[in-house]
Amino acid sequence: MVNGNGFANGNQGSATRKHLRVGERAVSTLKLVDDGHGSYTGICPVCQGGALVVPPMEAGQPFGVQCCDRKCNLDRILRAAGLGVTHLLPVTESPPSRLPQPIGIGKLIQDFPVLDTPIVEGLLRQGETANLVAASKVGKSWLAYSLALSAATGDRWLWHYQCKQGRVLLFDNELRPATIAKRIPAVAKAMGYELEEYREWFDIVPLRGLNANLHDLEEIISKAERGYYSLIVADAFYRFLPEGTSENDNAQVMALYNQIDYYAEQAGCAWVNIHHSSKGSQGNKAVTDVGSGAGAQSRAADTHIVLRPHEEEGVVVLEAAVRSFEPVNPLPLRWEYPLWKPEVDVDPSRLKDKLTPGEVRRNDRDAAGKAKILEALEGGEKKTAADLEKDGCGSRGTVKRLLGLLKAEGKVVSEKTLRYGNKC
User: N or C: more exposed end of the chain, with fewer CB within 10 A?
Assistant: First the structure.
Protein backbone atom coordinates (compact mmCIF):
# COMPACT_ATOMS: atom_id res chain seq x y z
CA MET A 1 0.00 0.00 0.00
CA VAL A 2 1.31 3.46 -0.88
CA ASN A 3 0.49 6.62 1.07
CA GLY A 4 -0.26 10.06 -0.33
CA ASN A 5 3.40 11.08 -0.22
CA GLY A 6 4.47 8.26 -2.49
CA PHE A 7 6.13 6.20 0.25
CA ALA A 8 5.11 2.65 1.12
CA ASN A 9 3.46 2.25 4.50
CA GLY A 10 5.07 -0.07 6.99
CA ASN A 11 8.55 -1.56 6.67
CA GLN A 12 8.35 -3.53 3.41
CA GLY A 13 11.78 -2.32 2.38
CA SER A 14 13.52 -3.26 5.62
CA ALA A 15 14.37 -6.88 4.83
CA THR A 16 17.98 -6.45 5.82
CA ARG A 17 16.89 -5.43 9.32
CA LYS A 18 14.52 -8.34 9.89
CA HIS A 19 15.13 -10.85 12.66
CA LEU A 20 13.88 -14.42 13.11
CA ARG A 21 11.27 -15.69 15.54
CA VAL A 22 9.13 -18.77 16.19
CA GLY A 23 5.73 -18.78 14.50
CA GLU A 24 2.71 -17.56 16.46
CA ARG A 25 0.96 -20.95 16.57
CA ALA A 26 3.97 -22.65 18.18
CA VAL A 27 4.38 -19.76 20.60
CA SER A 28 0.73 -19.94 21.64
CA THR A 29 0.45 -23.74 21.86
CA LEU A 30 3.71 -24.30 23.74
CA LYS A 31 3.26 -21.12 25.79
CA LEU A 32 6.68 -19.90 24.71
CA VAL A 33 8.22 -16.78 26.18
CA ASP A 34 10.94 -14.90 24.29
CA ASP A 35 13.90 -14.20 26.59
CA GLY A 36 15.07 -11.35 24.35
CA HIS A 37 18.32 -13.12 23.40
CA GLY A 38 17.10 -15.46 20.66
CA SER A 39 15.86 -18.25 22.95
CA TYR A 40 12.40 -19.23 24.24
CA THR A 41 11.11 -21.07 27.30
CA GLY A 42 7.76 -22.84 27.64
CA ILE A 43 5.77 -25.74 29.16
CA CYS A 44 6.11 -29.31 27.86
CA PRO A 45 2.71 -30.67 26.66
CA VAL A 46 3.85 -34.27 27.29
CA CYS A 47 4.93 -34.25 30.92
CA GLN A 48 2.63 -31.32 31.74
CA GLY A 49 4.85 -29.00 33.67
CA GLY A 50 8.34 -29.83 32.49
CA ALA A 51 10.19 -26.78 31.20
CA LEU A 52 10.72 -26.46 27.46
CA VAL A 53 13.74 -24.70 26.03
CA VAL A 54 13.92 -23.45 22.45
CA PRO A 55 17.56 -22.43 21.85
CA PRO A 56 18.61 -19.92 19.16
CA MET A 57 18.16 -21.21 15.62
CA GLU A 58 21.15 -22.36 13.61
CA ALA A 59 21.46 -20.99 10.08
CA GLY A 60 19.06 -22.64 7.62
CA GLN A 61 17.46 -24.93 10.23
CA PRO A 62 14.09 -24.95 12.04
CA PHE A 63 14.02 -24.13 15.73
CA GLY A 64 14.74 -27.06 18.03
CA VAL A 65 12.70 -27.90 21.13
CA GLN A 66 14.16 -29.56 24.24
CA CYS A 67 12.40 -30.73 27.39
CA CYS A 68 14.36 -30.36 30.59
CA ASP A 69 13.07 -33.81 31.66
CA ARG A 70 14.95 -35.19 28.62
CA LYS A 71 12.39 -38.05 28.36
CA CYS A 72 10.17 -36.20 25.93
CA ASN A 73 11.70 -36.13 22.48
CA LEU A 74 10.79 -33.69 19.75
CA ASP A 75 8.31 -36.03 17.99
CA ARG A 76 6.33 -36.65 21.21
CA ILE A 77 6.27 -32.93 22.01
CA LEU A 78 4.99 -32.01 18.54
CA ARG A 79 2.31 -34.76 18.50
CA ALA A 80 1.05 -33.79 21.95
CA ALA A 81 0.80 -30.18 20.87
CA GLY A 82 -0.74 -30.96 17.49
CA LEU A 83 2.14 -29.29 15.69
CA GLY A 84 4.35 -30.24 12.80
CA VAL A 85 7.99 -29.47 12.16
CA THR A 86 6.90 -26.75 9.74
CA HIS A 87 5.53 -24.80 12.70
CA LEU A 88 9.10 -24.47 13.99
CA LEU A 89 10.40 -22.92 10.78
CA PRO A 90 11.66 -19.40 11.44
CA VAL A 91 9.39 -16.50 10.65
CA THR A 92 10.84 -13.13 9.66
CA GLU A 93 9.69 -10.02 11.42
CA SER A 94 10.75 -6.39 11.14
CA PRO A 95 11.47 -4.58 14.39
CA PRO A 96 9.29 -1.52 14.94
CA SER A 97 10.86 1.62 13.49
CA ARG A 98 11.79 4.50 15.79
CA LEU A 99 11.76 6.90 12.85
CA PRO A 100 8.75 8.91 11.64
CA GLN A 101 7.38 8.45 8.16
CA PRO A 102 8.10 11.19 5.57
CA ILE A 103 5.67 14.09 5.82
CA GLY A 104 4.80 16.65 3.14
CA ILE A 105 5.90 20.25 3.73
CA GLY A 106 2.30 21.45 3.71
CA LYS A 107 1.34 19.02 6.47
CA LEU A 108 4.48 19.94 8.42
CA ILE A 109 3.57 23.63 8.32
CA GLN A 110 0.01 22.80 9.31
CA ASP A 111 1.09 20.62 12.24
CA PHE A 112 3.73 23.07 13.52
CA PRO A 113 2.36 26.60 13.02
CA VAL A 114 4.56 28.12 15.79
CA LEU A 115 7.99 27.53 17.27
CA ASP A 116 8.45 25.51 20.44
CA THR A 117 7.66 27.23 23.74
CA PRO A 118 10.46 29.48 25.01
CA ILE A 119 11.77 28.35 28.39
CA VAL A 120 14.22 31.27 28.53
CA GLU A 121 12.99 33.98 26.17
CA GLY A 122 15.61 34.91 23.62
CA LEU A 123 17.90 31.99 24.50
CA LEU A 124 16.32 28.56 24.87
CA ARG A 125 13.15 26.67 23.91
CA GLN A 126 11.51 23.44 25.01
CA GLY A 127 13.39 20.49 23.51
CA GLU A 128 16.56 22.52 22.93
CA THR A 129 20.02 22.10 24.45
CA ALA A 130 22.31 24.86 25.68
CA ASN A 131 25.92 25.02 26.82
CA LEU A 132 26.91 27.50 29.53
CA VAL A 133 30.68 27.90 29.16
CA ALA A 134 33.35 29.75 31.12
CA ALA A 135 36.81 29.21 32.57
CA SER A 136 37.23 27.12 35.70
CA LYS A 137 36.28 28.79 38.99
CA VAL A 138 34.82 31.85 37.24
CA GLY A 139 31.35 31.24 38.69
CA LYS A 140 29.47 29.17 36.12
CA SER A 141 27.59 27.21 38.76
CA TRP A 142 26.50 30.37 40.58
CA LEU A 143 25.15 31.71 37.29
CA ALA A 144 23.38 28.39 36.67
CA TYR A 145 21.70 28.62 40.10
CA SER A 146 20.28 32.02 39.21
CA LEU A 147 19.01 30.60 35.91
CA ALA A 148 17.40 27.64 37.65
CA LEU A 149 15.74 29.86 40.26
CA SER A 150 14.48 32.25 37.58
CA ALA A 151 12.90 29.31 35.75
CA ALA A 152 11.44 27.87 38.96
CA THR A 153 9.81 31.19 39.83
CA GLY A 154 8.97 32.40 36.32
CA ASP A 155 11.14 35.49 36.74
CA ARG A 156 13.59 37.34 34.48
CA TRP A 157 17.07 35.83 34.42
CA LEU A 158 19.72 38.53 34.84
CA TRP A 159 16.86 41.04 34.64
CA HIS A 160 16.84 40.49 30.84
CA TYR A 161 15.54 37.06 29.82
CA GLN A 162 11.99 36.16 30.82
CA CYS A 163 11.64 32.53 31.97
CA LYS A 164 8.55 30.35 31.76
CA GLN A 165 7.78 28.98 35.21
CA GLY A 166 8.27 25.24 35.53
CA ARG A 167 9.98 22.62 37.61
CA VAL A 168 13.77 22.50 37.43
CA LEU A 169 15.97 19.44 37.90
CA LEU A 170 19.66 19.90 38.72
CA PHE A 171 22.08 17.00 38.31
CA ASP A 172 25.18 18.04 40.27
CA ASN A 173 28.24 15.79 40.22
CA GLU A 174 30.77 18.36 41.45
CA LEU A 175 29.55 19.49 44.86
CA ARG A 176 28.69 17.66 48.03
CA PRO A 177 25.04 17.86 49.16
CA ALA A 178 25.86 20.13 52.10
CA THR A 179 27.59 22.62 49.78
CA ILE A 180 24.61 22.69 47.40
CA ALA A 181 22.24 23.14 50.35
CA LYS A 182 24.25 26.21 51.38
CA ARG A 183 24.77 27.78 47.97
CA ILE A 184 21.31 27.74 46.41
CA PRO A 185 19.48 29.39 49.33
CA ALA A 186 22.22 32.05 49.39
CA VAL A 187 21.57 32.83 45.71
CA ALA A 188 17.81 32.75 46.24
CA LYS A 189 18.02 35.16 49.17
CA ALA A 190 20.15 37.57 47.13
CA MET A 191 17.55 37.40 44.35
CA GLY A 192 14.78 38.17 46.83
CA TYR A 193 13.12 34.75 46.97
CA GLU A 194 11.81 33.00 50.06
CA LEU A 195 12.13 29.21 50.22
CA GLU A 196 8.37 28.77 49.85
CA GLU A 197 8.52 30.44 46.42
CA TYR A 198 10.70 27.70 44.90
CA ARG A 199 10.54 24.76 47.32
CA GLU A 200 8.11 22.77 45.13
CA TRP A 201 9.69 23.85 41.84
CA PHE A 202 13.34 22.87 42.25
CA ASP A 203 14.66 19.29 42.50
CA ILE A 204 18.29 18.32 42.92
CA VAL A 205 20.15 15.04 42.41
CA PRO A 206 23.57 15.18 44.15
CA LEU A 207 25.84 12.73 42.32
CA ARG A 208 29.35 13.44 43.54
CA GLY A 209 31.08 10.23 44.56
CA LEU A 210 28.56 7.96 42.80
CA ASN A 211 30.53 7.57 39.55
CA ALA A 212 27.44 8.34 37.45
CA ASN A 213 27.72 9.16 33.76
CA LEU A 214 25.31 10.67 31.25
CA HIS A 215 23.70 7.33 30.37
CA ASP A 216 22.95 6.60 34.03
CA LEU A 217 20.64 9.63 34.18
CA GLU A 218 17.98 7.78 32.18
CA GLU A 219 17.09 5.86 35.33
CA ILE A 220 15.76 9.12 36.82
CA ILE A 221 14.59 10.97 33.70
CA SER A 222 12.50 8.04 32.43
CA LYS A 223 10.44 7.97 35.64
CA ALA A 224 9.21 11.56 35.26
CA GLU A 225 6.13 12.22 33.17
CA ARG A 226 6.74 14.24 30.02
CA GLY A 227 6.49 17.93 30.88
CA TYR A 228 7.02 17.42 34.61
CA TYR A 229 10.30 19.33 34.30
CA SER A 230 10.69 22.35 32.07
CA LEU A 231 14.46 22.67 32.57
CA ILE A 232 17.21 20.17 33.37
CA VAL A 233 20.71 21.39 34.27
CA ALA A 234 23.78 19.10 34.19
CA ASP A 235 26.69 20.46 36.25
CA ALA A 236 29.37 19.69 35.17
CA PHE A 237 29.36 18.19 31.69
CA TYR A 238 32.93 16.86 31.74
CA ARG A 239 32.18 14.69 34.79
CA PHE A 240 29.23 13.07 33.01
CA LEU A 241 31.45 11.66 30.25
CA PRO A 242 31.30 7.82 30.25
CA GLU A 243 34.56 6.04 31.01
CA GLY A 244 36.79 5.93 27.95
CA THR A 245 35.09 8.91 26.30
CA SER A 246 37.28 11.81 25.17
CA GLU A 247 35.78 15.30 25.06
CA ASN A 248 38.11 15.92 22.08
CA ASP A 249 36.56 13.15 19.96
CA ASN A 250 33.86 14.60 17.70
CA ALA A 251 32.07 11.29 17.12
CA GLN A 252 31.94 10.47 20.84
CA VAL A 253 30.79 13.96 21.81
CA MET A 254 28.14 13.96 19.07
CA ALA A 255 26.79 10.67 20.43
CA LEU A 256 26.47 12.21 23.90
CA TYR A 257 24.55 15.19 22.52
CA ASN A 258 22.27 12.80 20.64
CA GLN A 259 21.53 11.19 24.01
CA ILE A 260 20.86 14.61 25.55
CA ASP A 261 18.49 15.47 22.68
CA TYR A 262 16.68 12.20 23.39
CA TYR A 263 16.34 13.10 27.07
CA ALA A 264 15.04 16.58 26.27
CA GLU A 265 12.51 15.21 23.80
CA GLN A 266 11.28 12.46 26.11
CA ALA A 267 11.06 14.79 29.11
CA GLY A 268 9.58 17.69 27.11
CA CYS A 269 12.09 20.13 28.61
CA ALA A 270 15.08 22.32 27.82
CA TRP A 271 18.55 21.12 28.81
CA VAL A 272 21.62 23.10 29.96
CA ASN A 273 25.17 21.74 30.22
CA ILE A 274 27.65 23.57 32.43
CA HIS A 275 30.99 23.31 30.65
CA HIS A 276 34.50 24.76 30.91
CA SER A 277 36.35 26.80 28.31
CA SER A 278 39.65 25.80 26.75
CA LYS A 279 42.90 27.12 28.17
CA GLY A 280 44.43 30.38 26.99
CA SER A 281 43.01 33.70 25.87
CA GLN A 282 39.38 33.65 24.69
CA GLY A 283 39.13 37.27 23.57
CA ASN A 284 39.63 36.74 19.84
CA LYS A 285 37.66 33.51 19.49
CA ALA A 286 34.21 33.22 17.97
CA VAL A 287 31.51 32.48 20.54
CA THR A 288 31.12 28.92 19.28
CA ASP A 289 34.87 28.30 19.60
CA VAL A 290 34.85 28.99 23.34
CA GLY A 291 34.56 25.64 25.04
CA SER A 292 37.00 22.85 25.72
CA GLY A 293 36.97 19.80 23.49
CA ALA A 294 35.58 18.77 20.14
CA GLY A 295 33.76 21.26 17.93
CA ALA A 296 30.69 19.01 18.01
CA GLN A 297 29.88 20.29 21.50
CA SER A 298 29.03 23.75 20.14
CA ARG A 299 27.59 22.61 16.80
CA ALA A 300 25.21 20.10 18.42
CA ALA A 301 23.82 22.61 20.92
CA ASP A 302 20.99 24.97 19.98
CA THR A 303 22.37 27.72 22.23
CA HIS A 304 26.00 28.34 23.17
CA ILE A 305 26.35 30.82 26.05
CA VAL A 306 29.84 31.96 27.04
CA LEU A 307 31.35 34.15 29.73
CA ARG A 308 34.57 35.93 28.77
CA PRO A 309 36.65 38.15 31.05
CA HIS A 310 36.43 41.89 30.50
CA GLU A 311 39.33 44.33 30.79
CA GLU A 312 37.78 45.57 34.02
CA GLU A 313 38.46 43.38 37.02
CA GLY A 314 35.46 41.40 38.31
CA VAL A 315 33.49 41.83 35.07
CA VAL A 316 32.68 39.26 32.38
CA VAL A 317 30.72 39.55 29.15
CA LEU A 318 27.91 37.12 28.44
CA GLU A 319 27.54 36.33 24.74
CA ALA A 320 25.40 33.71 23.04
CA ALA A 321 24.98 32.05 19.66
CA VAL A 322 21.36 30.93 19.25
CA ARG A 323 19.57 28.77 16.72
CA SER A 324 15.90 29.75 16.97
CA PHE A 325 16.00 33.36 18.20
CA GLU A 326 17.26 36.68 16.93
CA PRO A 327 20.95 37.47 17.60
CA VAL A 328 21.73 38.20 21.26
CA ASN A 329 23.46 41.41 22.32
CA PRO A 330 26.52 41.02 24.60
CA LEU A 331 25.70 41.58 28.27
CA PRO A 332 28.41 42.69 30.75
CA LEU A 333 28.06 41.15 34.22
CA ARG A 334 29.73 42.09 37.48
CA TRP A 335 30.34 39.60 40.29
CA GLU A 336 28.81 40.59 43.62
CA TYR A 337 28.68 37.49 45.79
CA PRO A 338 26.63 35.40 45.31
CA LEU A 339 25.23 36.87 42.09
CA TRP A 340 26.27 37.94 38.65
CA LYS A 341 24.55 41.28 37.99
CA PRO A 342 24.24 43.26 34.74
CA GLU A 343 26.75 46.12 34.50
CA VAL A 344 25.40 48.91 32.28
CA ASP A 345 28.40 51.27 32.40
CA VAL A 346 30.86 48.90 30.72
CA ASP A 347 31.76 48.60 27.03
CA PRO A 348 31.12 44.89 26.21
CA SER A 349 33.57 44.96 23.28
CA ARG A 350 36.60 45.52 25.53
CA LEU A 351 37.38 41.90 26.29
CA LYS A 352 40.50 40.99 28.21
CA ASP A 353 43.46 39.98 26.01
CA LYS A 354 41.58 40.83 22.86
CA LEU A 355 44.07 41.59 20.12
CA THR A 356 43.99 44.67 17.92
CA PRO A 357 43.47 44.12 14.17
CA GLY A 358 47.20 44.76 13.66
CA GLU A 359 48.12 42.16 16.27
CA VAL A 360 45.80 39.66 14.65
CA ARG A 361 47.45 40.24 11.26
CA ARG A 362 50.92 39.85 12.78
CA ASN A 363 49.92 36.59 14.49
CA ASP A 364 48.58 35.28 11.20
CA ARG A 365 51.84 36.18 9.44
CA ASP A 366 53.87 34.53 12.21
CA ALA A 367 51.79 31.37 12.01
CA ALA A 368 52.35 31.17 8.25
CA GLY A 369 56.09 31.83 8.67
CA LYS A 370 56.46 29.16 11.35
CA ALA A 371 54.65 26.67 9.14
CA LYS A 372 57.12 27.38 6.31
CA ILE A 373 60.09 26.87 8.61
CA LEU A 374 58.76 23.56 9.90
CA GLU A 375 58.12 22.43 6.33
CA ALA A 376 61.69 23.37 5.35
CA LEU A 377 63.05 21.35 8.29
CA GLU A 378 61.05 18.21 7.51
CA GLY A 379 63.19 15.10 7.37
CA GLY A 380 65.53 16.27 10.11
CA GLU A 381 67.80 18.31 7.85
CA LYS A 382 69.87 20.85 9.78
CA LYS A 383 69.69 24.42 8.48
CA THR A 384 70.90 27.83 9.55
CA ALA A 385 68.85 31.00 9.58
CA ALA A 386 70.59 31.96 6.35
CA ASP A 387 69.53 28.68 4.75
CA LEU A 388 65.93 29.25 5.81
CA GLU A 389 66.06 32.80 4.45
CA LYS A 390 67.12 31.36 1.07
CA ASP A 391 64.22 28.87 1.33
CA GLY A 392 61.81 31.80 1.36
CA CYS A 393 60.90 31.64 5.05
CA GLY A 394 61.40 35.38 5.54
CA SER A 395 64.16 37.85 6.18
CA ARG A 396 67.11 36.85 8.39
CA GLY A 397 65.73 38.81 11.35
CA THR A 398 62.20 37.42 10.92
CA VAL A 399 63.53 33.86 10.65
CA LYS A 400 65.57 34.24 13.85
CA ARG A 401 62.56 35.64 15.71
CA LEU A 402 60.28 32.84 14.52
CA LEU A 403 62.91 30.21 15.37
CA GLY A 404 62.94 31.64 18.89
CA LEU A 405 59.17 31.21 19.12
CA LEU A 406 59.34 27.67 17.76
CA LYS A 407 62.11 26.78 20.20
CA ALA A 408 60.01 28.11 23.10
CA GLU A 409 57.11 25.97 21.87
CA GLY A 410 59.35 22.89 21.82
CA LYS A 411 58.99 22.39 18.08
CA VAL A 412 62.66 22.93 17.11
CA VAL A 413 66.03 22.63 18.82
CA SER A 414 69.19 24.62 18.07
CA GLU A 415 72.87 23.88 18.31
CA LYS A 416 76.11 25.75 17.59
CA THR A 417 78.12 24.64 14.55
CA LEU A 418 80.97 25.89 12.34
CA ARG A 419 80.36 26.77 8.74
CA TYR A 420 83.12 28.24 6.62
CA GLY A 421 85.04 28.82 9.85
CA ASN A 422 82.25 30.87 11.39
CA LYS A 423 80.02 29.94 14.31
CA CYS A 424 76.37 29.53 13.30
Answer: N
- The answer to whether residues 62 and 84 touch, using CB atoms and an 8 Å cutoff, is no
Backbone dihedral angles phi then psi of residue 137, each to the nearest 5 degrees: 65, 20
Burial per residue of 2-20, b for 16 or more beta-carbon CB atoms within 10 angstroms, e otherwise: eeeeeeeeeeeeeeeeeee
Question: Position 98: which residue type?
Answer: R
Cα 244 from Cα 119, distance rounded (Å): 34
Give me Rg for the CA atoms of the chain: 32
- Go through the chain and tell me how many residues it has: 424
pTM of the model: 0.66
Q: What confidence tens digit (pLDDT) does each residue in 170-184 have?
A: 999 999 999 999 999
Give the start-end residues of each E strand in 46-195: 51-54, 66-67, 91-93, 118-120, 124-125, 129-134, 156-157, 161-162, 167-172
**Over the stretch 51-77, which tens digit does the pLDDT of each residue have?**
777 776 655 566 677 777 666 777 777
What residues contact 262, with CB distance under 8 A and at least 6 apart?
none
Over the stretch 37-53, which tens digit does the pLDDT of each residue have?
667 787 788 777 667 77
